[in-house]
């Protein structure tokens, strides 16, 4: 399932008139936590105003005096994938990062919505992240299965962890005949085994960087699974880099 820009955009746009005053617009933007708001001129969105640009200016000013014209790099098609699993792909994350933008107006038949960094913390936006993480877990489990004898990697775990994995396996094997014991490892356990048995060189990075990437993957997995904000915890560029590194790891493990 590929999640596209149109799937996570905010559709019910609150638009303002060029004649609106700063005090009323700023009050509305603060009330609904809008960072950006479009300005409609002659029935079409032609400009936008940013909340940060209205702070410290005269409250009686017309907002048109503090507005920015809508440019091509403020726009994005609704079919653009939020995250494309291929390294270096032109997905929403990379495009917004390249443009150094905190928002994009989404086009379908005209401007139909907006995406800001906050929208990337939504459950929908988390779906492609979860898919990338699941791909990593599956590939890393294959690596462990192929490179380490069953008894060796199992002995790395505590007695409690071994018992938990055996329980998971017994509960699920009837529904999945192809399930292996290694498939019941969680991300933290996978990463520990990859480090312990010196498999980090298979991840496509130098050893020290590979270990940092593993930490980032585990942190990202925990944030996504617990529906915690991923943009905000990191800067946007840091978040994009973590996702890009995860794509590269998945490619290296294929």
UniProtKB/TrEMBL annotation:
A Pfam family in this protein? CBS
Q: Which residues form the CBS domain?
A: 5-54
State the source organism's domain of life. Answer: Archaea
Q: What is this protein called?
A: CBS domain-containing protein
Which source organism does the UniProt entry give? Halonotius pteroides
């Amino acid at each position: 399932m590929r999640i596209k820009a149109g799937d996570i955009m905010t559709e019910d746009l609150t638009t303002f008139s060029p004649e609106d005053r700063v005090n009323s617009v700023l009050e509305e933007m603060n009330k609904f936590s809008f960072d950006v708001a479009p300005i409609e001129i002659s029935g079409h969105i032609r400009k936008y105003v940013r909340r940060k640009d209205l702070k410290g200016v005269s409250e009686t000013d017309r907002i048109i005096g503090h507005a920015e014209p809508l440019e091509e790099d403020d726009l994005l098609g609704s079919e653009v994938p939020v995250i494309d699993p291929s390294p270096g792909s032109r997905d929403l994350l990379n495009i917004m990062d390249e443009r150094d933008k905190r928002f994009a107006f989404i086009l379908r038949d005209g401007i139909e919505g907006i995406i800001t960094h906050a929208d990337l913390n939504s459950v929908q936006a988390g779906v492609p992240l979860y898919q990338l993480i699941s791909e990593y877990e599956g590939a890393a489990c294959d690596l462990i299965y192929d490179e380490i004898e069953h008894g060796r990697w199992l002995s790395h775990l505590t007695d409690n962890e071994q018992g938990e994995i055996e329980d998971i396996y017994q509960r699920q094997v009837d529904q999945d005949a192809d399930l292996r014991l290694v498939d019941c490892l969680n991300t933290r356990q996978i990463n520990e085994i990859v480090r312990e048995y010196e498999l980090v060189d298979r991840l496509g990075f130098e050893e020290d960087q590979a270990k940092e990437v593993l930490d980032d993957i585990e942190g990202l997995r925990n944030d996504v699974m617990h529906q915690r904000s991923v943009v905000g915890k990191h800067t946007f560029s840091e978040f994009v880099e973590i996702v890009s590194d995860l794509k590269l790891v998945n490619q290296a493990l294929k």
